[in-house]
Amino acid sequence: MPWPSRKRDKGAVADKKEPDAKIAKTEEEASDEEEEEKSTKPPAGGSKSGWKNWKKTKESDSGGEESKITYCHWLLKSEPESRLEKGVDVKFSIDDLKAQPNQTTCWDGVRNYQARNFLRAMKLGQQAFFYHSNCKEPGIVGIVKIVKEAYPDHTQFDQKDPHYDSSSRKENPKWSMVDVQFVRMTKRFIPLSEIKTHHLAHKTDGGPLKNMMLFTRQRLSIQPLTKEEFDFVLSLEEEKPH
């Protein structure tokens, strides 16, 4: 029995002119069901204790060339609120994941070449943030891990699925998916607005979030994170919300 279709973000045009990071981008971008973040809250204050107390490690960024950055963690966007797409509700929250057998599901429905390439780069056991998107207050709600590496996405061949792709062939599938398993909820909800505050501060002082793809390529529903980015964002769960 196939897993329910993974809940992608609202339709958007992906980054057609930007090179892929670490994974070679060789095809034209297709439209991915992604969002333009709805958080309209202006960043309040500075980065405060987060970056001041952060022990800076060796940075892998060299002259802004993303190809030299090593990504080992991920951020996966999914919609926690109901929205119909071709008659199908694409809602899928972290609570929906927790309700799945063994708290595991496939991450299907990605229809953007760069995001697909990131899926194909994921390795068994790597962790990712589960990010609630296209909602009143977007942000990180939990952590999942990759429990099965990339394999063909079955929804591309299902004519009843909103992510059906008539141009994809079973002998050479265009689209891939991975299986993810719930690890835990973050100790608190980490909103986009708070992460953005740190990102803006780090752009000035050279902190770990200065090039975070959540802000440089915000429309991608699958995003890589460096160890420094992942560890810094994870440290925010220990802080009181500003």
Automatic annotation (TrEMBL):
Alphabetically ordered keywords of this record: Nucleus, Phosphoprotein
GO cellular component terms, semicolon-separated: nucleus
SUPFAM superfamilies attached to this UniProt entry: PUA domain-like
Protein name: Thymocyte nuclear protein 1
Biased composition (Basic and acidic residues): 10-28, 56-65
Keyword Phosphoprotein applies: yes
Phosphoprotein in keyword set: yes
Region annotation Disordered: where it falls in the sequence: 1-65
Function field: Specifically binds 5-hydroxymethylcytosine (5hmC), suggesting that it acts as a specific reader of 5hmC.
Residue ranges annotated for the EVE domain, each copy included: 73-235
Subcellular location: Nucleus
Pfam families the record matches: EVE
